[in-house]
Queue: 2 jobs
Job 1
Amino acid sequence: MKKLIFAVLVLALAACRSREPELYTIHNASGMEASITNYGGRIVSLLVPDREGRMRDVVLGFDDLKDYYPERNETDFGASIGRYANRIKDGLISIDGKQYQLPRNNYGHCLHGGTRGWQYQFYKAVEVSANRLKLERVSPDGDQGFPGNVTASVTFTLTDDNRLDIRYEAVTDAPTVINMTNHSYFNLSGDPGSHDILNDELYINASRFTPVDDTFMTTGEIWPVEGTPMDFRVPKAIGKDIDADYEQLRNGHGYDHNWVLDTAGDDSVVAASLYSPVSGIELKVYTDEPGIQVYCGNFLDGTVTGKGGVVYGHRTAVCLETQKFPDTPNKPEWPSALLRPGETYTSHCVFEFGTR
Ligand code: BGC
């Protein structure tokens, strides 16, 4: 019997792995184009016009979709992250008095849903049209240690005013935690081989942030940005203070923090923006989430070769991850990520592109 179960498991695993990743391309009337794969729900390329009207690919990624497989590259490039974006302390959550151990894949904590989070799983394309792609994933009870059978979807819509609108939804049959995000690595110069992001201007609509310890774990405190290198309420070049003598920057190896947005869940107000003086491309981010993780590619070190054979060097991308605060399951006073049967998790993020 045991042998039979084992054989069935091996076959099932092989069947999963023999699935081929597909690429879907959506576009709008203005010529903007997004290519997304069902593997990890990853944005593979995002073509937007620069100030001269030339189309630029503004995200890091790979030409061969199988390069996204963890055995080739352990990166979160472009991914639709689940179940829980960012970190959970010691990989432990407790729901209704029951404790669950999740993978401890990052400094002893669970990062981005675990070793084989949804970024390394297949989604299924359930709706495809010229400007819209809806991906869905059924995550079984116990997936990466999380409880509940969860059905989650990510819907990407390209509007004619150059907005990539992303809507997340999830339902569960048992209490669980959900916190989805998109993990695109933006390089708005369109030329990550020659331009890092240190001269890019960043704006974050946040007067507070959540400090971390030297394992990148939130301490539970919320600090004002006022008078610190974390203050981006007036746009400034990322490189201006990134290596300042400030404990939070040492702990984060640069900027790799969650900011507490002043937008109060209003997704009509800009939460953050990024501008490349090289291309003139500006990205504005809108969200109904309370937080945004801004990660400046501090772990990129030239060991990953991406599209067109370009080597991705240190700090050649910025990730703008709209989210609940990291480790909310263990910080009850923070906005909750708990999802119960009968409820629907929703989250909204817009990446809007323009030039100046
Ligand atoms: C994290 C970084 C991590 C990166 C890549 C970010 O969200 O905060 O520490 O290296 O994702 O997974």
Job 2
Amino acid sequence: MSTIAIYPGTFDPITLGHVDIVVRASPMFDQVILAVAGSTSKNTIFSVEERIELASKVLEKIQNVKIIQFNGLMVDCAKENNASVILRGLRAVSDFEYEFQLAGMNRKLMPEADTIFLPTSEKYTYISSSLVREIAKFGGDITDFVPKVVKNVLIDKLAASSR
Ligand code: ADP
């Protein structure tokens, strides 16, 4: 039996912290599905298609990773894709309360799946997509936070939107 893990998120955009989680999870499971949220209450800078394209470019060398879009309930997407593990990254204690609550809700909705948390690697603990967007907006250097392709696309996007 193969074990499939789903790693859901907004990924607006994918950061080195997200990549680190996928790279470390990849040998643990037969497949890791990075599920990009289409319908989100968050005001995203990138469309879901753009977020998927960026994630695909960044993760193309990892054989057992699949990138998909999901709309609506994450657990429905997990069921459709036969995932039995929900993967989430934990940066700091401040993430824990929300993530613990989310895991509890998801367990209620899908008792056959379990949430697994991977603590982020130390050097990525302070990285968040929202801070990356904010720093880039004001011309700060985001080289250490996102893959190169993401940096370039984000800078282009911000330049285009300020025209
Ligand atoms: P969401 O909109 O669900 O918060 P995100 O795209 O922000 O989605 O993040 C998806 C997952 O990746 C979450 O579990 C989040 O905690 C985790 N994550 C975000 N940033 C990092 C990071 N720097 N290191 C490790 N995990 C992270």
